[in-house]
From TrEMBL:
Residues 111-204 form the CAAX prenyl protease 2/Lysostaphin resistance protein A-like domain. The chain crosses the membrane at residues 7-29, 41-62, 82-99, 111-135, 142-161, 167-185, 190-206, 218-239. Keywords: Membrane, Transmembrane, Transmembrane helix. The keyword GTP-binding does not apply. InterPro entries: Rce1/LyrA-like_dom. The keyword Membrane applies. It holds the Pfam family Rce1-like. It comes from the Bacteria. This is Lysostaphin resistance A-like protein.
C-alpha cells in the first residue's frame, strides 16, 4: 500500500471511529460519571478523556516511534504558552473591565467546563490532531491542513445560534478563530500550550463578564477580541524576527509544502 494513502486512510478511519464514539457515547459517559461523582466538571473531563482513546490509538498506529505527548505537542514550554497568551489577551481583559459588568452569579463548575476543560480538549482534538498532524507529517500546506478541522470546529458551535443571521456570525467567528489558533500554534514551534491558553483566556474573560449570550457577541466584545488577536500576531512575529526564526507559514506553504517542517 502506498505510504501516503496508508497515512490518510488510517488518519481518516481513526477520526471517523472517534467521531462515532463521541457522538454515541459522550453523553452516556458524562451522565454516568456525573451520577457517580456528583460533579459535572469531573464528568466533562472524564467523558472527553475516554472518547479521546480512538485518536490516541490512531496516533500510535500512524507514528509509533514518537511519544503521544510529542505528537500532541504538549512537550513544548508551558510557561511560554501561558505568558504569550496572557499578554496577547490583555486588551480583552482591560476593555471588559471597563465596558462590561462582572457576571453576578458564577457557576464554578460551568466556568471550569467552558474554560479549562473545553480549551484543553478542543485544542487537542482540533489543533493537535485534526490540523497539527496533517501539517506536521504530510505535505499539506496551512490552508489545506486547517480547512476540515476549522469547518468542523465552527460546526460544533452552531448550537448557540437562534436564527440564520446569528448562525452565520457564529460560523464565521469560530472558523476564523480556529484559523488564528492554528496559526499561533504552528508559528510558536508547534506549542499547543499557546493555543490552549489563548482559547482559555478568551473564554474566561467572556464568561466572567456579561458580554453576550453566545460567541457571536456584540460590537465592543468582538472589537477588543480582534485587538487581542492582532496583538498576539504582532508578538509572535516580533519574537520570531528577534530570534531569527524562520516562519513556518509562508506563501509557498499555504496549500502544498515542498518539504515537511
Amino acid at each position: 500500500m502506498n505510504k501516503t494513502f496508508r497515512f490518510f486512510f488510517i488518519f481518516i478511519s481513526g477520526f471517523f471511529i472517534y467521531y462515532l464514539f463521541d457522538f454515541y457515547c459522550f453523553k452516556t459517559i458524562l451522565n454516568f460519571i456525573k451520577e457517580l461523582s456528583g460533579s459535572k466538571a469531573l464528568a466533562h473531563v472524564a467523558a472527553y478523556a475516554v472518547t479521546l482513546i480512538p485518536l490516541l490509538v490512531t496516533l500510535k498506529i500512524l507514528i509509533p516511534q514518537k511519544k503521544i505527548i510529542t505528537l500532541l505537542s504538549l512537550e513544548q514550554s508551558f510557561f511560554k504558552g501561558i505568558t504569550l497568551a496572557f499578554i496577547g489577551t490583555v486588551p480583552m481583559l482591560i476593555s471588559y473591565l471597563i465596558f462590561f459588568e462582572p457576571v453576578r452569579k458564577l457557576d464554578l463548575q460551568g466556568l471550569f467546563i467552558n474554560t479549562v476543560s473545553s480549551a484543553f480538549f478542543e485544542e487537542i482534538i482540533f489543533r493537535a490532531f485534526l490540523i497539527g498532524i496533517l501539517y506536521r507529517f504530510t505535505r499539506l500546506g496551512f490552508i489545506s491542513s486547517i480547512l476540515f478541522g476549522s469547518l468542523l470546529f465552527a460546526q460544533v458551535h452552531l448550537y448557540q445560534s437562534s436564527d440564520f443571521k446569528e448562525l452565520i456570525e457564529i460560523f464565521l467567528i469560530t472558523f476564523l478563530g480556529s484559523a488564528f489558533f492554528s496559526w499561533a500554534y504552528i508559528e510558536t514551534d508547534f506549542n499547543l500550550w499557546t493555543a490552549i491558553f489563548l482559547h482559555f483566556f478568551m473564554n474566561l474573560y467572556w464568561e466572567l463578564f456579561d458580554v453576550a449570550d453566545n460567541v457571536s457577541g456584540n460590537w465592543y466584545g468582538n472589537l477588543f477580541k480582534i485587538i487581542s488577536i492582532l496583538l498576539t500576531i504582532v508578538l509572535i512575529i516580533n519574537y520570531k524576527r528577534k530570534n531569527k526564526t524562520p516562519f513556518q507559514i509562508t506563501g509557498k506553504s499555504l496549500f502544498i509544502k515542498t518539504k515537511l517542517p
